[in-house]
Write a structure and sequence with these properties.
This protein is an alpha+beta fold. The chain has a domain of 134 residues: 2-Layer Sandwich (D-amino Acid Aminotransferase, Chain A, domain 1). Helices cover 30% and strands 28% of the residues. Strands 8, 9, 12, 13, 14, 15, 16 and 17 form an eight-stranded antiparallel beta sheet that branches. The chain has a five-stranded antiparallel beta sheet with strand order 1-2-3-7-6. A hairpin with an 8-residue loop joins strand 13 and strand 14. The protein is globular, with a radius of gyration of 19 Å. The chain starts with a strand and ends in a 6-residue tail after the last helix.
Length: 286
């Protein structure tokens, strides 16, 4: 009997057997820790397929949890068109309780913190940085994982070592920075700046570190068009930042679950599609 383990902000997780899970990526969208009353057409497929692209791109840096994204290899009840393109059969891992955030540019909560005290997550940065400026080198700023509806909590590297141990924490930092730096360089060649991102890792049955969940998607990252990039201001983006900005400027209250205008949904969908096409070099096929 296949059991549904969880239904998160975006993903449904099913237990296939003691070694395997099936991840299904929905078209739901969340912002400010609320699941919004709107679906973004094809968002789940785009997230799933961008992740698949990146997992393959960094597989020589670190193994990943993907077994197959081919419908024919799924259990029979999941061999349906509704699961095609938006699902992945993956290895079951012991997931680590750390969000591995890498920041290559100073923006968002990092910019706010820097303005207050010149640091980001306890890391002292050079004086005189401007909003959206590229950092001298990317930094690793972990956070704890929150339950749905709660905020992730930024923590210091020292706190990270208290939670999972020094050896594992150093491995997370090294691998996160290595993945980010390689992928950011690739994305730049396609006209996309990856300002920051988050990774998740787990341990396999032999205690090996494995990259899991999603990788460098518009939900887990800030993607900026290089052609519009200007230091000293907030940036246009290919990710859900557009929706977040609309919520802030319109006065929309996510907790009230009011209807979101169709043109906002359509624009958000187009930004996801643009991100996919620029990064993979392929047109998105619905």
């Amino acid at each position: 009997m296949i059991k549904q383990l969880s239904s998160g902000k975006v993903r449904e997780i099913y237990e296939i057997d003691e070694d395997k899970l099936l991840l299904v990526v929905s078209d739901r969208i969340s912002a400010f820790d609320y699941i919004l009353p709107a679906s973004i057409p094809n968002k789940g497929k785009i997230l799933n397929q961008i992740s698949e692209f990146w997992f393959d791109y960094v597989k020589d840096i670190i193994p990943n949890h993907i077994i197959s994204t081919n419908l024919a290899n799924f259990p029979e009840e999941f061999q349906k068109t509704e699961f095609e393109g938006r699902s992945a059969l993956v290895k079951k891992l012991k997931m680590l309780p750390i969000e591995c955030i890498v920041r290559g540019y100073i923006t968002g909560s990092g910019w706010k913190s820097y303005q207050e005290n010149g640091t980001v997550c306890g890391i002292k940065l050079p004086e005189g940085l401007q909003e959206s400026q590229k950092l001298p080198e990317a930094i690793f700023t972990p956070s704890t994982k929150a339950e749905i509806g709660d905020h992730d909590e930024n923590i210091s590297f020292e706190k990270c070592t208290e939670i999972i141990g020094l050896e594992l924490a150093e491995k997370l930092r090294t691998k996160s920075l290595e993945i980010y730096n390689r992928c950011a360089e690739y994305a730049a060649s396609k006209g996309v700046i990856i300002a920051d991102t988050k990774f998740e890792f787990g341990l396999d049955e032999n205690g090996n570190l494995v990259l899991a969940d999603e990788v460098l998607t518009p939900d887990s990252s800030r993607f900026w068009p290089a052609s519009d990039y200007k230091i000293g201001q907030s940036q246009k983006s290919f990710d859900k930042q557009y929706l977040r900005d609309w919520i802030k400027s319109s006065g929309y209250q996510p907790e009230n679950k009011e209807k979101i205008p169709q043109e906002v949904i359509a624009t958000t969908a187009q930004k996801y599609k643009e991100a996919y096409q620029l990064i993979t070099g392929k047109n998105f096929e619905e």
